[in-house]
Design a protein that fits this description.
Cyt_P450_E_grp-I; metal-binding; 53% helix; heme binding; binds protoporphyrin IX containing FE; globular; 494 residues; iron
Length: 494
Amino acid sequence: MSEFTQLLVFLVALPPSYLLLRALYRITFHPLCAFPGPKLRAISHLPHAYYGSQGIQAVAVRDLHRQYGEVVRIAPDLLSFMTPSSWKDIHGHAASKKFPKFGYFKVRADAQPLLTAEDKDYPRQRAALSHGFSDRAIAGQEWTLKKQIDVFIKKLGEKASAHEVTNMSEWFSWLTFDIVGEFTLSMKFGCVESGENHPWVSTLVKWFRATSFAANANAFGIFAPFVMLFANIKDLMGIKIHLQRSAEKVRERLEQGEVSGKADIWSYVLRAQGDKSLTMGEMEVNAAALLVAATAPVSDTLSGAVYLLAKNRDKLVKLREEVDGLAKSEEDITMVLTGKMTYLMAVINESLRCYTPTPGGGRRKAPPEGATVSGYFVPGGTIVCVYQLPAFTLPNNFALPETFLPERWLPADHPDRPNATLSDKQEVFQPFSVGPKACLGKGMALAEIKFILARLVWHFDFELVDNGFAFEKQRAFLFRERPALNVQLAARNR
Ligand code: HEM
């Protein structure tokens, strides 16, 4: 064999030999080799990335937890936990400083939104934005919200009178988009009024897909840019368009400065001065991120709740009894009143459990010295996460997990609380995450969902027209990719 041939054989054999040796190392000597999970997942990131590209990553992780238990090695350096204590150990106040976010896609190179801000930028941004999400700020939104729900109810009333099938998934998208348009940009999108998709709404779906793809690509380390070559170009363009539009609208809004009587987020943000303020780039990119973060999970929750209530009419009747019992007239339905409706809150919790809008889990990287998560020592550099779908829907944590049972969220001494659910591990149910980087919009989201659902139930009866919304047929990229939720609405006789 000539020297050239020898070199060629060496070069051809090198990559497969490297991959083989690396695979052997990953299943025998790797610091995570003692954690349970399939061998293929221990060897390669590809299975996890593949399920991600199909929109069924969380479902696949749930199946692994079902087989392997409370902690699973779902990729060579990635552990998924589903225990209550893992939330605190990974995301809690003390842990949060040690476990940085990992794999989040930075949609803009020169300015980050809160979700991907790092180091000193993070607390500065969180402080500047949080005033806009305070209880006072939420209460200040009530009037605008009420007006928007009035239009929503009026339009649905027309559909009911005409006996038309209504795709509630679509209507909830339009309503939440209208609401967040006013809140983040003081803009009237008018989706509900026109009963049509605003062109902007469809670019958001592209954002979910592209950012979800990028999060999976990031797991491939130095090969991530190569993997990104396979990203859908239309989805990536969707991000660009959305960023551009948001930037234009924020500039328009900021030119007006603080406007009296206007209670959008900028009224609060603009009060932060000097080194506490946000840069123009940060305001632009935060507006873009909020348009996504504040619409998709809220419309997911509302759609999930309507689907589950329509399938479980006894729960719908019970909810209606509570709303009717507390509100003597429609005008009585306020944020304060809906805050007192315990069964309504139980329905929302149970909808979030059965149909969590974020079925995956934010990834975090263990500190160099390693850390203990849920009693397991996790070596430094390991990526850890709590996937919400398995944590909320497996029998390890909830009795009768497949059953829509709002009563499980009633107090333990409530006569309607089923005994079987007294052993539920409720602390694992954290749809908004926990700790200092948990959802900033939790209070606003819950206030909005309660208000909308109470008004809907007050006005309408609804029945499913088909089962196209069945959860098991759906895909998720960060948030749910919702199919049509076709219902027949009927105005209630009063
Ligand atoms: C049912 C509705 C909602 C759910 C289930 C939800 C869930 C979450 C979760 C799980 C996170 C943590 C993400 C991570 O660590 O990777 C998060 C973060 C965030 N959410 Fe929500 N969210 C909802 C509604 C909203 C709304 C209405 C807003 C704004 C009006 C909002 C704004 C944010 C922001 C700004 C963050 C980033 C927080 C940070 O990194 O400090 N969310 N949300």
